[in-house]
Amino acid sequence: MKQVMLYCRSGFEKECAGEIQDKATQLEVFGFPRLKSNTGFVLFECYQDGDAEKLIRKIDFNSLIFSRQMFAVVAECQDLPKDDRISPLLADLSDDESMPKCGELRVETPDTNEAKELLKFCRKFTVPLRQAMRGKGLLLKSENPKKPVLHVCFVAPGHCFAGYSYTDNNSKFFMGIPRLKFPADAPSRSTLKLEEAFHVFIPREEWDTRLASGMWAVDLGACPGGWTYQLVKRSMFVHAIDNGMMADSLMETGQVKHHMEDGFKFEPARKNVTWLVCDMVEKPSRVAQLMGEWLIAGWAKEALFNLKLPMKGRYDEVLQDIENLKIFLIQNGVKFRMQAKHLYHDREEITVHVQVLSNISPH
Ligand SMILES: C[S@@+](CC[C@H](N)C(=O)[O-])C[C@H]1O[C@@H](n2cnc3c(N)ncnc32)[C@H](O)[C@@H]1O
User: Fold this and answer.
1) Given 308, 312, 326, 341, which residue is catalytic?
2) CATH classification of the domain holding 168
3) Cβ distance 176 to 42 under 8 Å?
4) Residue 167 · residue 150 · CB < 8 Å
5) Is the Cβ atom of 225 under 6 angstroms away from ligand 1?
6) Is 301 a member of any domain?
7) pLDDT in tens, 205-250
8) pLDDT for 102-157, tens place per residue?
9) Which of 184, 189, 262 lies closest to 225, judged by CA?
10) In principle, which of 46, 160, 344, 362 could form an S-S bond with 154, CB 3.0–4.6 Å?
């Protein structure tokens, strides 16, 4: 077992590859990434047998920004015959002793326009394949969320990579993408960005306490209100900061105060804010600095914000901005949890979440 499969947004293979290369090197696992632009995946080829298993165990999946899913490849099948794609795949997987017994099967494709047709096939193929895998003992008889996930990823008709991921270190979503429905009454499509961020960064069992009704939030760069909509929907009160127009439907709820001000200068009059969210189109280093200032001052407990990616050196820029923010918080006595992800609804930006755990000196 020498390969790790990583899914990413099409066009971001270089960033995904740079990241896995860095993480592998830190673990003294040597190898190289195989990638092709706009394919939506990267294969990391280790030199030593068993190293793929090491990587999927030791790299914290949540620390990866550009990867949507990560699994160890056990078999690559090419030219699967149309009349029986199942037998060769089963034979390859059951011949390999490193293949653990799995609790769930996901037949997937990388997320590209070309793969859309293939996805239809994957859906149809899942039922008979699951049946056959259960028969062979590769899958448990019933779904088990604690056991590894068996991934079969079709990159072209008749060509797939199969392997497994661990449920405590993978994306729980099919293809690494939460399926969300656009709410018809939301003022903008970017509402889905914040909703996805909640799904990815906040464990579902903590929603009742961390996204609770009655909380106050500040939305910097709020107009027309897609992000505010998500907060209002959770019965929060929102200071919406933007010189633009907020959707009437949101203002009519009575839960929103619109401040036509510069988001870089706004200061909440009462320091009762739990959530700071920010979608201002600005230089990422400036936004990261602003978020740091709010959290250090104790003006918010959790921050969720976008960092717009530059045209060039996208990976280096975000790493630098995130690193600077970490140093800034640490030097000011803030203990925190931070995660950054290139979400499905993000394009030329990534989303960062910071939760303050303790702060020795809120001003
Ligand atoms: C991408 S839009 C936000 C969309 C919003 N999150 C939504 O879901 O509807 C960016 C917004 O940031 C605002 N903006 C940019 N710079 C700003 C600043 N310095 N202060 C306040 N708002 C700013 C713009 O007016 C624009 O409405």
Assistant:
1) 308
2) 3.30.2300.20
3) no
4) no
5) yes
6) yes
7) 999 999 999 999 999 999 999 999 999 999 999 999 999 999 999 9
8) 999 999 999 999 888 899 999 999 999 999 999 999 999 999 999 999 999 999 99
9) 189
10) 160
- Whether 197 and 336 map to the same domain: the answer is yes
Tokens of 341: 């992800």
Catalytic site includes residue 308 = yes
What pLDDT, on a 0 to 100 scale, did the predictor assign at position 330? 98
Residue 262 falls within a domain, yes or no? yes
Claim to verify: residue 202 and residue 168 sit in the same structural domain: no
Whether 145 and 208 map to the same domain: the answer is: no
Are residues 339 and 283 part of one domain? yes
- Kindly give the distance from the C-alpha atom of residue 189 to the centroid of ligand 1, in angstroms, as a whole number: 14
> Is the domain of 238 the same as that of 160?
no
In a domain, 183, yes or no: no
Q: Is 208 labeled as ligand-binding?
A: no
Mean pLDDT of 336-354: 97
Q: Is the dihedral of CA 156, 157, 159, 161 positive or negative?
A: positive
Q: Is the CB of 263 under 6 A from ligand 1?
A: yes
Is 96 labelled a binding residue? Answer: no
Per-residue pLDDT tens over the stretch 24-53: 999 999 999 999 999 999 999 999 999 999
- How far is the C-alpha of 237 from the C-alpha of 353, rounded, in Å? 20
The reply to whether ligand 1 has any atom less than 6 angstroms from the CB of 224 is: yes
CATH code assigned at 304: 3.40.50.150
Ligand 1 atom, smallest distance to 225 CA: 9
Rounded distance between C-alpha atoms, residue 5 and residue 68, angstroms: 10
Residue 110 and residue 206 in one domain? no
**Annotated binding residue at 226?**
yes
Which tokens belong to 343?
A: 């979400």
Cβ(191) to ligand 1 under 6 A?
A: yes
Domain region containing 110: 3-176
| Whether 244 and 154 share a structural domain | no
Pocket test for ligand 1, best of 262, 279, 282, 286 (most atoms within 8 A of CB): 279
Two structure tokens written together for 358: 């303790």
Angle, helices 116-136 vs 86-95, to 10°: value is 60
Domain check: are 245 and 319 in the same one? yes
Mean pLDDT for all residues in the chain: 96
Let me know if residue 75 belongs to a domain: yes
